[in-house]
Design brief:
InterPro entries: FTHF_cligase-like_sf (IPR024185), LUD_dom (IPR003741), NagB/RpiA_transferase-like (IPR037171). The chain is an alpha/beta fold. It contains 5 helices and 12 strands. It is globular and about 65 Å long.
Length: 214
């Protein structure tokens, strides 16, 4: 008996009590788990998000709406950015004061061209306070998934408190599963067998999150 035969036999045994013709959509799945752990005010929710982001080694900045262009300009200058990638729907006021050459998000851009970009500035779809996670869904202010994965420096603007939810279940309710979702919890990092942390392997080495008060 081959390994394939063994696997198929186990599948048949596991499905022995399933009526013929029954599909996964025919069986209701109970979703009585906790959706949120505790109750928080909007201010507490934003504070928790900032704490979780910092734990993941993201750099967190707070600013008001009329200050965001100055903050983004300073962050790009401190990084030494000469070329910044800009999604087509990004609020132009956010980078109005910035000096770097603006590179537009184009389908024809190659990985080599994107790798030559110093920074990218995006918005986000939603942020999860309990996990310190930011979700991008490819909307015009966020651009294609790859632009947030190839450049070494990512500045992500989160509108608070509107875009911040407590938990992952709450975030899922706001998201369209048919869109290209990218879940970000801190800068890209991995560890080898000796637990030596290496950043920037699968995405940006440096993640800066701007919590924009509205």
């Amino acid at each position: 008996m081959s390994s394939r035969d063994v696997v198929l036999a186990r599948v048949r045994r596991a499905l022995a009590d399933v009526p013929r013709g029954e599909g996964y959509e025919d069986v209701p799945v109970p979703r009585d788990y906790l959706r949120v752990h505790g109750r928080r005010t909007p201010e507490e929710r934003v504070t928790l998000l900032a704490e979780r982001l910092a734990e993941y080694r993201a750099l967190v900045h707070h600013c008001a709406g009329d200050e965001v262009h100055l903050l983004v300009m300073r962050l790009l200058a401190e990084h030494g950015t000469q070329h910044v990638l800009v999604p087509p729907g990004l609020d132009p006021r956010w980078i109005a004061a910035a000096d770097p050459v603006r590179i537009h998000d184009r389908a024809a851009s190659t990985a080599r061209e994107l790798d030559a970009v110093d920074s990218v500035v995006t918005g986000c779809a939603v942020a999860v306070a309990e996990t310190g996670t930011i979700v991008l869904d490819g909307s015009p202010d966020q651009g294609r998934r790859r632009i947030s994965l190839v450049p070494d420096h990512h500045i992500c603007v989160v509108r608070v408190p509107d875009q911040v939810v407590d938990s992952v279940p709450e975030a899922l309710e706001r998201l369209d599963p048919s869109r290209p979702l990218t879940w970000i919890s801190g800068p890209s990092a991995t560890s080898d067998i000796e637990l030596d942390r290496v950043e920037g392997v699968h995405g940006p080495r440096k993640l800066e999150v701007v919590l924009l008060s509205q």
